[in-house]
Amino acid sequence: MAELKRRTLKDLLGNSVTRYSERPALSMVNSRPITYKELGEQAETLSRILHKRGITAGDRVAILSENNPNWGISFFAITTIGAVAVPILPDFHLNEVQHILRHSGSKAIFISQKQFNKLEEFNSESLATVFLIEDFSIIPPETTLEKLRNILKDGASEYNKLKEAALKMVGLMMSEVQENDLAVINYTSGTTGHSKGVMLSHKNLVFDALATLKIQPIKHTDRLLSILPLSHSYEGTIGFLIPMLCGACVYYLDKPPVAKVLLPAMQTVKPTMMLTVPLIMEKLYKVKILPKFTHSLLMRSLFGIPLLRRFFHRMAARKVYNQFGGALHFYGIGGALLSPEVELFLREGKFPYAIGYGLTETSPLIAGSSPDKTRYRSTGIVLPGVEVKIENPDPKTGEGEIIVRGDNVMIGYYKDPERTAKVLSPDGWFKTGDLGILDKNGYLYIKGRLKNVIVGPSGENIYPEQIESLINRVDYVLESLVYLSQKLLIAKVHLNYEELDREFQGKKLTETQISSIISDKLENLRQSINSNISAYSRIHKMVEQPEPFEKTPTKKIKRYLYIH
Q1: Which of 48, 257, 291, 355 has the CA that lies 20 to 30 A from 415?
Q2: What is the structure's pLDDT at 553?
Q3: Omega within 30 of 0 (cis) for the link into 553
């Protein structure tokens, strides 16, 4: 990878198109990849069409679509002419989508057919152009979903006409893109329910990409299978911009990444690198792997012997590795805390995992590592060129709020100077809201969210994530949520019903009996957890959560929905 003259997305794309012209760049699984040359040509053509539609430097253009190569083409078409991309998460409700379009003042949008209903009955003075992302045809604003199906038949020919007209334009007459120019407004979907428009510059994104490569290189021969939304900064920077910077190829799924879709795709692509969230491996371990080691008293006894446990983990991890295509050298995990027992499985199984830590506001990565340099329970080392401090550390534990300064830190929150001032100091330090420890070797350890800390009866700090981690270790528990209600600690628990079904199999039990058994299990679990934690953090009551908790795109529980 050559050194970029300037840290802009235009320079990033131009460098890769020159260096990796005939290399594959982006593809759907089981389709022909577009090359870097084709990526550059299509992005330039689309830029010309945007310019013809009145889009100029600083104008906001939204992208609302599932992952596909045209998402990347749209992104570069927008940002390389100095316009501002506004990626919108496909999981957002139509009310949130329409709020973002209004708040950002987007003048155009690239939208997929699946998302098109979120534009129906949407009125905005600013939104003048709607592109269907499947073929880049322009859709009249008043179009309904029913009318869209007829338009789709002629979409390709319409785009070709636009393409021919655009190519006749001599120049774009656009101002040169500068490093500090706004490139992206990323609206977050957090655990608090308040969406914020994070402003990231070209320098923010390209700096973070270059810094990440210093701890985990990517080669032009690497293949990535993308399973997280490109609209999220985690996938957007690490899973898209970094591979594009290095000439690698990224493959996308045309369906949600459930096992029956994901496993065949892995065998087809044989990815060398993947980015994931903890829930994927945690669910696999809890539902498919752990039951094999605990289904009988003998196996549980053998699994309890460290030497044999490591052997079992190694065998199971090798099977998972082969199921994932057998070519992985990097399996990145981020977005939330990974459970200790699953990390132990990956570590003892010699699976090539690595954990990273970051936020949308930091473009996103702050710390991470390569698989050969991981430390148990750590999110890795701080990126080169980034400063991290622990503010107001506890004298006993060393825990304090993680604050960050560097070229990866956002410009601020869009149209929200008050909220910006609360988290961003005049000298550039960003308050993450996360609690952590930084050891003498530069490894960062995350302890939980500052806003989630519960103050005990005598002023003690209670970290709900730590209690949840203990609860989630139990084989018949999938996930949990600890919160304070009327000065008492409550735990909502979503059970592993597949495990319980195996336990109940062959027994003729009534619904009342099953309910009674589950209640007894929860009470026994409560007592067991309380016997292993401090008195001030003991759980008063455990409540069954029948359905999975609603989550953010990175699979963190939306706590605000369950805490009353």
Answers
A1: 48
A2: 80
A3: no
